[in-house]
Amino acid sequence: MGFIDLNQLKAIEIFPGVNAKIVSGDRIMFSYVDMPANCEAALHNHPHEQWGIVLDGEFDFTIGSETRHLSAGDAYMIPSNIMHGAKTGKTGCRVLDVFSPPREDYKR
Predict the structure, then answer these.
(1) How far apart are CA 27 and CA 10, in angstroms?
(2) Are strands 18-24 and 66-71 parallel, antiparallel or unpaired?
């Protein structure tokens, strides 16, 4: 797969109301995540390292014991096994999450 048309990818629900379009190789995974207004991705952790950037909108993001309000252009990095979660307010957001290694539970 050399080029990706996001419009051709099927979205999967990764949290109630939170949908993602997944692109994965052998060692890295992109997850284009859409969170609507007033939505929550509950605190969770996983063994994968996760990096991300806010593409559009804004939300409150918790990594470990710190919460910050993020908006378009803000980026974050989550080491493996660290608790993290997100909550949108009046507007939703779109983020690009990058996982290494790829998450097997997102491959469908």
Answers:
(1) 21
(2) unpaired
Q: State which fold the 35-108 domain adopts.
A: Jelly Rolls (2.60.120)
Of residues 90, 95, 86, 92, the one with CA closest to residue 40: 86
pLDDT in tens, 68-91: 999 999 999 999 999 999 999 999
Domain ranges in the chain are 35-108
Question: Is the bond preceding 79 in cis, omega lying within 30 degrees of 0?
Answer: no
Planar angle of CA 7, 70, 78, nearest 5 degrees: 85
Q: Is the pTM of this model over 0.85?
A: yes
Is residue 81 a contact partner of residue 100, using CB atoms and an 8 Å limit? no
What tens digit of pLDDT does each residue of 6-27 get?
Answer: 999 999 999 999 999 999 999 9
How, if at all, do strands 75-78 and 29-35 pair?
Answer: unpaired
Half-sphere exposure of 86 (CA within 13 A, CB side): 30
Angle of CA points 3, 4, 5, to nearest 5°:
130
